[in-house]
Amino acid sequence: MKIVRIDTHIVEIPFNDGGKGQGITPTTWNTLENVLIRLEDEHGNVGWGEAFGYFVADATKALIDRLIAPLLLNREITDIAAWNREIQLRLHLFGRYGVTMFAISGVDIGLWDLAARRQGVPLHRLLGNATREQIPAYASMVRYADNEVAPGICEKALQMGFRDIKLHEVTLDEIASCRRAIGDQVPLATDVNCSWSVENTREWLPALRDMKLAWLEEPIFPPEDFATLASLRGQGVPLSAGENWCTALQFEQALVSGAVDSIQPSVTKVGGISECLRIAEAASQHKAVVLPHCPYFGPGLIATLHLAAVQPTVPQVEYLFVEPAGWLYPIEALRQGNQLHIPQGAGLGVDIDTAVIERFRRS
User: Fold this and answer.
1) Residue 312 dihedral angles phi and psi, to the nearest 5°
2) pTM of the full predicted structure?
3) Number of helices (H) and strands (E), helices first, in the chain?
4) Looking at the Swiss-Prot or TrEMBL record, what is one Pfam family this protein matches (predicted)?
5) 346: Cβ–Cβ under 8 A, 6 or more apart, which residues?
6) R_g over Cα of the chain
């Protein structure tokens, strides 16, 4: 397929989470910044991709426009995975991680969507053998830092049909208040986004074990300190990480080191669908559980569903528990309780809402 047009858009959609929007992020977080990539081939077929953009959307878009688009426009693509490796090599001077890989990720997703649409098949048909048509999702909370609000939001998620919850609370008191609200039988995890010291993590693991924590996510900084993570395992609290690792190489190193009990690749960050398939192969070889990081509602989430369709080692996916002012895709129509339906149409399988793009496009 020949790519004859590339358009990138920053679409910023406000959301409501029931809290103050003040937590682990650099500034108040109350909008979803989507870096969307529209690819068009020589026959007028269109594919959509998404590059990670929260707080760095402008940088991600600039990298696509200035460095990737000139290398892709009017290019004949016959092997997306090979193109992905080639572009990683061409751009490695600008960083193997961070916005460089975010940008590559978004274009890669768009290429896979376009390839599947050209063939008139759902994306998962190009990725492997699908074993299911829906997958469980857990409710992923924002950080509330409020012992009344956070438990109430947890209860709301259960009322909406979710059966598993992940917090972003960072104190034992906050976590315990949510555990008391939902009882001991509901799986409860927390992501502290690297905010704990190694010493505090070791000290607090027994209490987290007593709370029956499903997993502790990214306890320490830096997130790629695989040796220290490995030393924290085996104390009754499963460890998980990966949203801040990029490329299959880092995931392979983490698995070899025994750093975590489950890995969390993010398709909009690691290098796209092509790199997620490489990570899936590594996970299979190491018999590792894959818990995809996907707190977004654009092509990245839909691509995650298609990847999960062909990966039996993915027990559930992440569902960001907020209420956007507009939906790029009819996500709630895909959800039934805690199950997300995997679209079966061509490509990503569901059409993006261009009216929402126009309404929330950022100049």
Assistant:
1) -60, -20
2) 0.97
3) 14, 14
4) MR_MLE_C
5) 116, 117, 119, 120, 121, 122
6) 20
